[in-house]
Please model this.
Amino acid sequence: MRKLGVFLLGLLLSFGFFCSNHPWIYATAEEKSVYIGGMPAGFTLSAGGVQVLGFCDVMTESGTCSPASKAGLHAGDTIIGAAGVKVETVSDLNEVINKTGENALLLTVCRGETEMEIEVRPAKDKVTQRFKIGVLIRDGISGIGTVTYIEKDTGRFGALGHAVVSSKNETLKISDGAVYPCSIIGVSKGVRGKAGELRGMFLAEKSLGSAEKLCTCGIYGKISGDFDKKSLKTATASTQNVKIGKASVYSTVSGETPCEYEIEIVKVDKNNKENKNYVIKITDEELISQTGGIVQGMSGSPILQNGNLVGAITHVFINDPTRGYGISIDELLAQ
Model:
């Protein structure tokens, strides 16, 4: 792995695509004491195999074909084995395919919660002279998001606030992942009709923790035991007294240290089924001058009101970058 890698913060963000299938959950009876986040973190997430994103044709001497599609693979399948060999990376799969040649290859595939075996016969590409099965695949994703909170008693964290989705708007699943500190090195300001974005750099020489769960409310995991939390402020995670009015958001738009910025909560909808529990407006002139408002990369930035952590930013309004949606802390903690 490279020590430093530059990524657009939008890699993990998908403004407009997220949902929740469970009703609003009141957590006031089990209020948690948490560290306030707002710091950027780099995530490398493993798919636990090779995910099938789609299909492509193999150019052979006798014409074009897609052996994988013909064999019955589906977009969204995860290949976890080939010819009895465990498959964890794209390189693993390609190696087995080339060793198999034109012979039938038995793939072990996970489709949802079901594991099955599918037989596919590789085809020889006439240009590269390598055997292929005609799939678009990946073995994981990398990108940067914002940490919302760290639980004081367990060290567990929540980040991002919304689902990581594929090109087909399907929620991605992971088996595990690593988390690294990041530094924000640039920003493209948001304007009406176009979302802005933060640009960040992995600081991969040290670990921030591990990512263990990916769901409709973001990324969850555990912070490393040697992570220095002394500089972080604490708050009670509670929506008991949340209301329309002044609030603040912690976010990092330069470097590694989050700053507090003024916002307003202009709408509260505790029963929203799509995690659009708040409509917020950025009122801090300094933040507006730096970013234009909410930009890609700020998702997960914690929202505070009257000293309580009440939620996190998730989405921006494309027609007004100073406004966007937020998710309730109750929804985040319910995961």
